[in-house]
Amino acid sequence: MENLGSLAILLAFCFSIYAIAGSIVGKLKSKPFLVISAERAVYVIWFLLTFASACLVYALMTGDFRLAYVASHTNRDMPLAYKFAAWWGGQEGSLLFWAWILSTYSAVVIYTNRTRFRDMMPYVTATLMVTQCFFLLLISSIAMPFKVLAVGREVIGVPDGNGLNPLLQYWAMAIHPPMLYLGYVGFIVPFAFAMGSLITRQPGDAWIHTTRRWTLITWGFQSAGILLGAGWAYAVLGWGGYWAWDPVENASLLPWITATAFLHSVMMQEKKGMMKVWNMVLITATYLLCIFGTFLTRSGVVSSVHAFAQSPIGMYFVTFLTIQIAATAYLILDRLDYLKSEARLESVVSRESSFLFNNLILLASCFAVLWGTLFPVISEAVTGEKISVGEPFFNRVNIPIGLFLLFLTGVGPLIAWRRSSLESLRRAFLWPLIAGFATAAILLAAGVHHFYALMSFGLSVFVTWTIGSEFLKGSQAIRAKTRRNWLAAMVELTHRNTRRYGGYIVHMGIVLMFIGFTGAAFNHDTTAEVKVGDEMRLGHYQMKISEVSEGRTSNYEWHRASVEVYRDGSHLGTLHPERRFFMSSQQGTSEVSIRRRLNEDLYLNFAGMSQDNQRAVIQAYVFPLVSWIWIGTLVLFLGTVVCLIPSKQRLQYARTEVLGMVDTNVPVRP
Amino acid sequence: MKTYTKFAVLIVAVIGTLVWLAMGGINESSTYYKEIAELEHMGDQAMGKRLRVGGDVEPGSILRDGRQVHFVLTQENHRLRVVYEGSDPLPDTFRDRAQALADGKMGSDGVFRASKIQAKCASKYEAQPGTAPASRAPASS
């Protein structure tokens, strides 16, 4: 079994080399059959990797403890779903998973574009396969998923495995890595298209529409992945945080930021033919940051709670990254004439300008996060001392950036292209601004003195107002014409221009998330050692411990407290924070109990038993508004899906029509 | 050209503000990584600086005392007594033999006062000797 799996990986590696060579040689020598055969090789790689993955998953599910990977990531009593999730639970398996997703994406790209972009597809295939080849090299030579446990020349098995880290045995954690990988890996596709178009000097914008679509899809996955991770941290780690600026978290955020910047600035290219070099740089940066993020997670360069074990894998990544940076930099510089801008900036107060600042600020944030993450490495190289920077650094830089972005979210969509008159500004922004300031004033009067919180709430109202008025104005026009009700008119409006209104929905999701983030300014907590019958207080909550019970399952032992929660004398319900101790990994975890409400969450953590084993240590937290982050996430995801639905009316851009791309007009249909 | 000057001024202003904020953030939160042996060398110099020390938790050394947690970090025969006085609960991965990172300051009594602990558990199988790479798949299969 393990031999077949390894063989499949090796064969896939050979096929990836063939696909690179075949597509490039086929293109240069004008031999279409070679190009086609290279594309078929991509399908073969998908079958081989699917087979290899199936072998690994089968071994995990059946508990084949002769395999090192199986022994260190599963144990007999683990639920089946988590045995499956162990596929991406460790270094080797997750690399195989990475490669498998990439092969799936590649196969989909090649299938959906089998009749389009014939002149640049060979390069797209080659770019995809270079990355594929690199990852297959890793799993076939240094991080082998099918390594067997052996003493001397004899293969041995162990009776039971280590088990998956119990912290990871949680539903959001089981799907968080796949989501994140779908995002991470997906960014290779836009990069491949960018490289293809650059090499062949693609005329027109057809490729950029395809690229934009792919970026949007992967951006959606990446957002969902990051926020699932945040939701997991909140519900599992027991301290109620969802973001700690850990290097690995940052690694997932970096490509997300550049991709966000790209999704905005690409509109400048589509509508005005501007910022072409910039967009090329953004796509490349996003891709490189994905590889860099994978490297950061796996090499142990920076210490992190998430990091996999230290391994020699780092050097391979550094080499690969260096080569790629050099190659893309050369390509872009060599083809600057192809990327020439078709228009100039005309005014500081214009849509173009708002995009420019949006990009500037996003990039600044990306740079700050990267700088902070690599600070220990940089400082060690420069001063010889390893110095790290913590949360205060990241927050100080990124909170103002976030608020400025929130402001632009409100301004950008309403401001005119090219230049805006003072009169039109007044018409568009007077009432939203008044509403925003009024909100801040009311909150100030109500006793909120936190400056950033006031700004954040004020801006949230400002942006909500601008987005709301856009929807109302548009749907009112439709209502007047067609006599439909409000809801139907709004759906119709959105359907007519899904990109625009989908974008607004995404922005609304961001606003809701900001409201949730701002709640963190008002967190409070308390810790108490209690026994049955004791009471504790936090804010306006009274908590009474009614029972402390214990027991065991085949997988873990548990202690559970039952806490009756009251507010102003009325009973709100019972919470059951639990402490688990996993036998196979000899590790304890907390199952926190959360009373989730829209205004605030009450969050109880059973931190353990006191020294004398008589009392339970209970930590209670109140997290205001935190639910809005998760609601915002759903809205954001919905908006992304809306953006991907083709508009009812075909968008017409004068600029693209001139070039007469026949079947690849906007928007591209799948 | 005037428009471009305006853009330049605005961009410089934005970047300038951010750099200023970043500098403040770096000063406020920079932490020095030190080995336990280095700390012993530094003596009094270590006091007052924000430090991060890594090591393995000595088995049996964890002692809970109210909200304080005492333990000993070891690294190549060097030992460091640590007392954790932070408000967050200790990570679940923090236990005997775990690799831990402690953030805090050196006390004058030679006990390291940590305000934050990160921990990663050592895996059972990774250190096991004799793990040979899987035999390369034979052609006959």
SSE layout and pairings?
The complex is a heterodimer of chains A (670) and B (141).
Chain A: H1 2-28, H2 32-62, H3 68-73, H4 80-85, H5 91-112, H6 121-142, E1 150-151, E2 154-155, H7 171-186, H8 188-200, H9 206-236, H10 247-272, H11 276-299, H12 313-334, H13 351-383, E3 387-388, H14 391-411, H15 422-445, H16 451-482, H17 486-496, H18 498-518, E4 524-530, E5 535-538, E6 541-552, E7 556-567, E8 570-575, E9 578-582, E10 587-591, E11 593-595, E12 600-609, E13 616-624, H19 627-644, H20 654-658
Antiparallel strand pairs in A: 1-2, 4-13, 5-6, 6-7, 7-8, 7-9, 9-10, 11-12, 12-13
Helix pairs in contact in A: 1-2, 1-6, 2-5, 5-6, 5-7, 6-8, 7-9, 8-9, 8-11, 9-10, 9-19, 10-11, 10-13, 11-12, 13-14, 14-16, 15-16, 16-17, 16-18, 17-18, 18-19
Chain B: H1 2-29, E1 31-34, H2 36-42, E2 51-57, E3 63-65, E4 68-75, E5 78-84, E6 99-106, E7 112-120
Parallel strand pairs in B: 1-2, 5-7
Antiparallel strand pairs in B: 2-4, 2-6, 3-4, 4-5, 6-7
